[in-house]
TrEMBL record:
SMART domains: HECTc. This is HECT domain-containing protein. RCC repeats lie at residues 139-191, 192-243, 244-295, 297-352. It comes from the Eukaryota. One of its GO terms (molecular function) is ubiquitin protein ligase activity.
Length: 989
């Protein structure tokens, strides 16, 4: 049964029934019972369309007051096509067949197929006044018609189009509904995101302004409102949320927004008059709105009533929702199934109370549900394979279909999708691909579709975050396909082609992923990068081609590392390390050896060119320091580009004075060269000089008499003094020396806490770092933090502390301020900040300035604070057994030689202090390199032409011990002890 009202229509029942069968109420509502079932109805401004029976379409030109004419209902000649839906504009219409074909109806009542959509299966169509929309089952949205206000969404200054154009900015977003108004358009995603574009003169796009939009734009004020339906009028828009809440916005001059006002609304606003009624349907006419409350079988209307379109019998406007007084039979024997509004007309479709509900006219895009997966797996070996292949292509070639396949259904959580929540059920993603991976045939087909169709389609500019779900889904699929490098490369390119805002959102999504799924993505790009590095290392001809691919892979890995640092999972730095980097260092070492001996090994120019390519690759890799293990970082220091030698000529008796003068005179470029130290006493060039210089220079600086540092309670660590007694320049030189030691791979003894190295890397020190410097005071601060809030007022503490024998007010604006439960955290933070930052700010900045005058920040940033400290200071992990095990022997010596056997017996009996003195004697360092004692490769060789009176000698640059062939253990013990305690050229005056 149909009920209709609105602008005058001949009382002939639209040609659906005889005129005398139509009944009218006192309020002007007509009712009729069509002879055949009405499948769909669409009301345009001056066109009415019906789908009757088994897909037969009829249209009628409605009366236009200017012309005063009404056409007759005319059946369309559709040949064998059966129509499922019709959507009418002002004078034109589009029809949708059951097979998904779109037909266009023009003025002569002739239907023509839209050839551009012939290869698409369309599931929804919509008409504005003069523009059209079509949504295909693979999630693609097409628009055509007039584009005077941007209603096609194709971009500014784009012309009108008579043929459908793909709306690329909505590609990848799984759409649930499309709707068109006068000159504006809307699309609704499966997760309730609302996108509008076109004319916005009255705020009908809900964006808070009146500027026309030429591309789809998300209506942020409707985010997470669980929108399930949209209807557009000429200049206003209505949305319906799950739960029955109605929002309206746009033109309100006829009261069509229902806010008891005639004002426009630029943003969505709840219709209070419908609050709590659980509205189930909405429909917008030209200037009026209908709402259906199915539970009570009631239709509400509001807006323009000048043409009787409100059904209240009065030709007045109405700004609040009021019930339409439908004929009694509508309530007694029928239930309202659907409301329709368009132009200046309204229509209600009813069915008998005991009838089956009408099927939902709105079809959704194809998704990968359990039934589809079951069919793909069970029928892939049958004669249905061709059909299965088509289904695989339909789903897996479409980002929108994939994105809509795995949304979280429970508790409507997918409606909470935001820039920090993807709305994806990742467990269902894994389960689905586990099932599909059971069949190799399916996986082969998936690989082809992903490579040829899906990945190339990802180069889009997304209008909403739902489009990014595919970037979370794909790694699980690529993992099943076996980490194919070509697929990963295309995936990386697609990620990096996203605009910056979308890249940030994708990082957010990654950071919120469960650890298992984040690890899958990391492994994908770690494996890809490792393979590229290996190929570039061993196949020199591939360097140029693979360099861009490696750069992109590393860029994505950088994003993942950043996301991992924010993730609360269990990924560790070791999960990002690429061990193949060390293979590149090995190759460089071999190549450098060949270059040094080029006259034996071939063309020097070719080798230099190859080295340049390797160094270029190393430069690229160093932009991602997290992929280096400590060994690789350490080796990178040795392969940095040298600026030539930086030579200091010093007097042993005025070591620091001469050193500081050399540093004053040196240019910044010279400081970055390899250090050479010459002593005025002999002018002999030797690496021993450099190591001796560092050892003695830092020993002098650490002398308590120098007053450069304050020592902690245990006298094991140093820190900068709060009160300066020396020129700031001295700390600048200290920074320079530390920078020189770092760049020259020299381990020095300068026992700063980890806080210093954090500060060099711009990482803020914490209470834990303070505890290393002052364990007792840090314990007291932790006690304050742990103190019961109920008793915090009784701590009897104020914001006044003693540090470096000085009383300090931590809050100078409020002297004597008490520490309470409300401010104890601030107190502790301020305390730590004062000690480690504020009190030493000037001194540390001078130190830092000197350090970075020598060192490149990019090189230092390779290291974590713990690693930086280890590289500069070494460690105290003295594993003497490893030193002995790794020792090698030359000439007549071997490990069974009597002198060697006696030597190690003597060594094992030395005190720990003497063993460290021996390490200093043979290496120039008294601490263990950061990579462990295994890095100390001691070479022992006989000192020929020596007697039992000669002392052992050492070449520290090569870690060589020249040992006379002693005959007795006592001689070895005496001579070795004397050698390791020799003053090495520095005499007291």
């Amino acid at each position: 049964m149909l009920f209709y009202w609105g602008e005058t229509v001949k009382p002939d029942g639209f040609g659906l029934v005889n005129a005398d069968s139509v009944k009218f109420t006192d309020t002007g509502i007509g009712s009729l019972s069509p002879r055949s079932r009405i499948g769909d109805v669409s009301l345009g401004k001056s066109l009415l369309g019906f789908i009757r029976g088994e897909g037969n379409a009829s249209v009628m030109r409605l009366s236009i007051r200017e012309h005063g004419t009404t056409g007759k209902l005319k059946a369309l000649d559709l040949k064998k096509e059966k129509i499922r839906l019709i959507s009418c504009g002002e004078t034109d219409a589009v029809l949708l067949t059951y097979g998904g074909k779109v037909l266009s109806l023009g003025k002569p009542y002739v239907c023509r197929p839209i050839k551009e959509l012939c290869n698409k299966t369309v599931i929804q169509v919509a008409c504005g006044d003069h523009h059209f929309m079509a949504l295909s089952n693979d999630g693609q949205l097409f628009t055509w018609g007039q584009n005077s206000s941007g209603q096609l969404g194709l971009g500014k200054d784009k012309p009108s189009s008579t043929s459908p154009q793909l709306l690329k900015s909505l590609s990848g977003i799984p759409m649930a509904q499309i709707s068109a108004g006068g000159d504006h358009s809307f699309a609704l995603s499966l997760s309730g995101a609302v996108f509008g574009w076109g004319r916005n003169s009255a705020g009908q796009l809900g964006l808070g302004n009146t500027e026309d939009m030429y591309i789809p734009t998300c209506v942020n004020n409707l985010s997470q409102k669980k929108t399930i339906s949209i209807s557009c009028g000429e200049e206003h828009t209505t949305t319906l949320s799950k739960g029955g809440t109605v929002f309206t916005f746009g033109s309100g001059r006829y009261g069509q927004l229902g806010h008891d006002s005639l004002q426009d609304e630029l943003q969505p606003r709840v219709v209070c008059g419908l609050w709590g009624l659980n509205v189930s349907q909405i429909a917008c006419g030209r200037h009026h709105t209908l709402a259906l409350v199915k539970s009570s079988n009631t239709v509400y209307s509001f807006g323009c009533g000048e043409q009787d379109q409100l059904g209240n019998g009065q030709r007045t406007n109405q700004s609040v929702p009021l019930p339409v007084q439908l004929p009694p039979e509508a309530n007694k024997n029928h239930k309202v199934e659907r409301i329709v509004a368009g132009g200046n007309h309204s229509l209600v479709m009813c069915s008998p109370q005991n009838s089956e509900p009408e099927p939902n006219q709105r079809r959704e895009i194809v998704t990968l549900g359990d039934r589809v997966i079951h069919r793909l797996v069970t029928e892939c070996e049958s004669n249905q394979w061709r059909t299965i292949k088509k289904e695989i292509k339909r789903v897996f070639s479409s980002p929108a279909c994939l994105n809509g396949s795995f949304i979280i259904r429970g508790c409507d959580r997918h409606y909470q999708t935001s820039t920090h929540f993807s709305g994806l059920d990742m467990e269902s993603v894994k389960t689905a691909f586990d099932r599909l991976a059971e069949k190799e045939r399916v996986l082969w087909e998936l690989e082809k579709v992903v490579e040829k169709d899906l990945l190339p389609s990802l180069s889009f500019t997304a209008a909403g975050v739902e489009a990014l779900r595919v970037f979370l889904i794909l790694p699980e699929l690529l993992n099943k396909l076996g980490h194919k490098t070509k697929l990963t490369e295309s995936y990386a390119s697609a990620i990096l082609n996203l605009d910056p805002c979308m890249l940030t959102t994708l990082e957010n999504f990654w950071s919120e992923l469960p650890e298992t799924f984040l690890r899958t993505i990391v492994k994908l790009f770690q494996t890809s990068s490792a393979k590229l590095i290996s190929e570039m290392t061993y196949d020199y001809s591939q360097q140029t081609n693979m360099y861009p691919l490696l750069r992109e892979s590393l860029q994505v890995l950088q994003m993942l590392h950043k996301a991992s640092c924010r993730n609360q999972g269990t990924l560790t730095p070791g999960d990002f390390i690429i061990i193949e980097v060390n293979e590149l260092f090995d190759m460089l070492h071999v190549l450098q050896t060949d270059i040094n001996n080029y006259f034996w090994n071939g063309n020097l120019n070719a080798m230099m060119e190859q080295k340049q390519h390797y160094m270029q690759t190393l430069t690229l890799l160093s932009s991602s320091p997290f992929i280096f293990n400590l060994e690789a970082k350490y080796r990178l220091l040795k392969f940095r580009e040298s600026m030539g030698p930086f030579t200091m000529t010093l007097r042993r008796t005025a070591l620091l004075e001469d050193c500081f003068q050399s540093l004053r005179d040196a240019s910044e470029q010279a400081l970055k060269g390899w250090l050479q130290v010459l002593y005025c006493e002999d002018f002999k060039q030797s690496d021993v000089n450099k190591r001796d210089f560092f050892h003695n220079a830092f020993k002098m600086l650490l002398d308590p008499e120098s007053k450069m540092f304050m020592y902690n309670d245990t006298k094991t660590l140093i820190w900068f003094p709060a009160e300066l007694s020396l020129p700031e320049e001295r700390y600048f030189f200290l920074g320079l020396l530390c920078g020189l030691a770092f760049y020259n791979n020299s381990v020095v003894h300068i026992p700063f806490p980890l806080a210093l190295f954090k500060k060099l890397l711009d990482i803020r020190p914490t209470l834990e770092d303070f505890a290393e410097l002052s364990h007792v005071q840090a314990q007291s601060l932790q006690y304050i933090l742990d103190y019961s809030d109920d008793d915090a007022e009784n701590m009897d503490m104020i914001y006044t502390i003693i540090w470096d024998d000085k009383q300090v007010e931590l809050d100078p604006e409020e002297p004597g301020k008490a520490v309470t439960s409300l401010n104890k955290n601030v107190f502790v933070d301020t305390y730590v900040d004062y000690v480690l930052n504020k009190s030493v700010e000037r001194v540390f900045n001078e130190f830092k300035r000197g350090f970075y005058k020598v060192c490149e920040r990019s090189m230092v940033n390779l290291f974590q604070p713990e690693e930086l400290r280890g590289v500069m200071l070494g460690s105290e992990d003295y594993d003497w057994d490893v030193l002995k095990k790794n020792a090698t022997y030359e000439y007549v010596f071997d490990k069974e030689h009597p002198t060697i056997v006696l030597f190690w017996e003597v060594f094992e009996e030395l005190s720990n202090q003497d063993k460290k003195a021996f390490l200093l004697f043979v290496t120039g360092f008294d601490r263990v390199p950061i990579l462990g004692m295994g890095q100390v490769k001691l070479i022992v060789r006989p000192l020929f032409n020596s007697t039992q009176d000669h002392l052992p000698q050492a070449l520290t640059c090569h870690t060589i011990l020249d040992l006379p062939i002693y005959q007795r253990k006592e001689i070895i013990q005496m001579k070795l002890t004397e050698a390791i305690h020799h003053r090495r050229g520095f005499w007291e005056e």
